[in-house]
Amino acid sequence: MTLGDLILGILVALGFFVSAAVSRMFRGRMAGIFIGGVVGLAVSVFILVYGLTDVFAVAPAAVEN
Predict the structure, then answer these.
(1) DSSP letters spanning 12-56
(2) pTM of the model
(3) From first to last of its 65 residues, what are the pLDDT tens digits of the chain?
(4) What parts of the sequence cross the membrane (predicted)?
């Protein structure tokens, strides 16, 4: 496990804290849970999609004719 892997894991876990922070912004309990959850998942997915290409060498698929 490299330092890049650890940092990527910490950044993905950051999505939980973003979710909690956003849910506190809304007065309605269900609105805060729903919107906070969506935003937290979006942050985690965004970090995974753009972070995995930098941490791991992802080669393009070979096309054979």
Answers:
(1) HHHHHHHHHHHHHT-SSHHHHHHHHHHHHHHHHHHHHHHHHHHHS
(2) 0.65
(3) 777 777 778 888 888 888 888 888 877 778 888 888 888 888 888 887 777 666 555 555 566 66
(4) 6-26, 33-52
- CA separation for the pair 12, 42 (Å, rounded): 10
Q: Would you give the distance in Å from CA 21 to the centre of its chain?
A: 15
Which of 26, 20, 24, 65 is closest to 41 using CA atoms? 20
> Distance (Å, rounded) from C-alpha 14 to C-alpha 58?
24
